[in-house]
Amino acid sequence: YHLHLRPGESVVRRLGGLHRFMGWSGPLMTDSGGFQVFSLGFGLEHGVGKIASLFPGEGAACASPPPAPGRVVRPRLAEVDDDGVTFTSHLDGSRRRLTPEDSIRVQEELGADIILAFDECTSPLHDHAYTRRALERTHRWALRCLEAHRTEQALYGIVQGGAYRNLREASARFIGGLPFDGFAVGGSLGRSKADMHRVLEWTLPLLPAERPRHLLGIGEVEDLFEAVARGIDTFDCVAPTRLARNGALLVPPRAGGGARNRFRLSIRSAACAADDRPVDPGCRCYACRRFSRAYLRHLFKAGELLAYRLATLHNVTFVMDLMRQIREAVRAGRLGELRREWLGAGASASGEGR
Fold first, then answer.
1. Residue 329, CA distances (Å) to 1, 298, 316, 341 in order
2. Contact, 74 vs 45, CB < 8 A?
3. pLDDT, tens digit, for every residue of 205-251?
4. Which of the residues 233, 236, 275, 321 is marked catalytic?
5. Is 236 a catalytic residue?
6. Where are the alpha helices (DSSP H) in 157-232?
7. Cis ω for the linkage preceding 7 (within 30 of 0)
8. pLDDT tens string 2-60
9. Residue of 31, 102, 195, 223 marked active site
10. Residues 6+ apart with CB under 8 A from 192
11. Does the annotation count 233 as an active-site position?
């Protein structure tokens, strides 16, 4: 959706596709615009999003409490109907229309290796009746996406259904029965991480085991372990880069960090002012090999743009190294042991034999 608005898929196509455009030879995935159906639609109206937590029952994790039923936090910029979605651009106010066919065309012009079917991503505050209607719409759109697909790009279908077991299972059976190259679990994953774990446990056993399973928009350290243990293969998430821009650098588990902060070092903290150690002595990233915590803190405090670049390089390297460890543990049959090393003795036992 964002590349459709700026610079436009036709510009990217004329410049050789996304790989050449951004100078990246590795694998690329594009989303369909389905998340913006939520984030610019009911996400605005309900006050729920990536910053105001996707899990409104997580208490302190929320930027604000969930609104009372029927209260509008902000007007929607996306209106859904059975044929597609009409967006009001947040850039210039222009009206944009996306249908399943449009979404596939845009993604094919962008040229990513993996593209996703157009879906309606629902809010954690939606009731069963609305979630069921959105699910049925998503299923119809999935068929239209398959019909519109013309390239060799891998096309993934998306399982919806919110935190309702009967809807998730129905969607997993329907989407899993279609000839997609892989499958993604999307939409509302409930009001808490425990809800998300249950959604994955309902959904993943019903998807074909021989095709990859992707978890959309999730990627905190503890999420990686819990989702892999339940059968997820790949992830996408803004967390590593967003945390980096805000001075939260990912580190191995540390004592006294609290449930959410045990994997984060606040580089702006006064404790880092004269600390000549790297962020993580075991990290191979450019920032850790060359610079101290004190220097990175200075860059952040001085507002230097290099701060964001170095912090981002570190967090992305950290996550990639952690995923390498997880893959090796899966192959060696010791995922449960590695998970307990990182998450502690209280880590759930689900999926240890995966």
1. 36, 37, 20, 12
2. yes
3. 999 999 999 999 999 999 999 999 999 999 999 999 999 999 999 99
4. 236
5. yes
6. 165-176, 193-203, 221-230
7. yes
8. 999 999 999 999 999 999 999 999 999 999 999 999 999 988 888 887 544 567 776 53
9. 31
10. 55, 57, 58
11. no
